[in-house]
Each structure stands twice: as C-alpha cells, then as structure tokens.
Input
Amino acid sequence: MNDSEIISLILNGDRQIFRMLVEKYQSMIFRTCMGFLHNKDDADDLTQEIFIRAYKSLHRSSMDH
Output
C-alpha cells in the first residue's frame, strides 16, 4: 500500500492505519531531529510532535478541498 492509499483510508475514517506511516517514517524523522538537536529525549519529543501535526494537517487539508 502506498502513502496516498494510506492517507485516503485515514481521511475516510481509518485512524488506526496512520500507524503505518509512523512505522515507515519514524526512524528517518528521528535521525533528522537528532542531527539538529543532538539530544535523544528532545529528538523523541520533536518526532512525536511532527507526527501529531502531520495527522492534524491531513484533516485540515482535506477540509480545504
């Protein structure tokens, strides 16, 4: 399943499938955060915040269309 299909399912009410995007991108985002922050706890917090904002923006952008 590709990202577009996952996003479509999320927007159609399948909130649990967002986990697939988290699992796919979590380590890449965490490594990027570590590169900037050089602190594991801060990088963990920022990684979580990024996914929260991404999830919320999916629903916001779908309302705009």
User: Anything to note?
Assistant: The mean pLDDT is 93.
